[in-house]
Amino acid sequence: xxxxxxxxxxxxxxxxxLGKALTGRGLVYLEGDLGxxxxxxxRGILRAYGYQGAVKSPTYTLVEPYELGDQRLYHLDLYRLAxxxxxxxxxxxxxxxxxxxxxxxxxxxxxxxxxxxxxxIQLRVADPGRMALLTAESALGQHVLGQLNSQTTGHxxxxxxxxxx
Length: 165
What we know:
Elements: E1 2-5, H1 8-22, E2 26-31, H2 38-47, E3 63-68, E4 71-77, H3 86-89, H4 92-97, E5 101-105, E6 119-125, E7 130-136, H5 139-150, E8 157-158, E9 161-164
Parallel strand pairs: 1-9, 2-5, 2-6, 4-5
Antiparallel strand pairs: 1-7, 3-4, 6-7, 8-9
Helix pairs in contact: 1-2, 1-5
């Protein structure tokens, strides 16, 4: 699934729709260069669960936990990770074993340690805005993409790219 996000408002709105489709569970990889919009997408996902505060990338803390009612969400940024084994020492197994939603920026830094995601999202700068390529890698991921596809009725499609508004 390819989605064109023409501005920040569309980016956050798409993140919110994605968050609702995830229903609070799963593992999502967020891939893309610096400034591609991984944290902006995370802000939208958090809004799906009622969070209205500022969202910053946990580059230095590596993990930012959110408790939103009965929902737990973990936002990880592995950019500064020197070795995937560091995930073991920071309690990564507990985070991933939790019945929660885990969003991981820079998952390639955890190669060999991280399990496969339910949804992989590759973000890139595209004039205007950003382009998101979503790939389902599990049954849950297929369900999530199916939910998102069902929400695109009425959105113009060009060359298979969904213009999210």
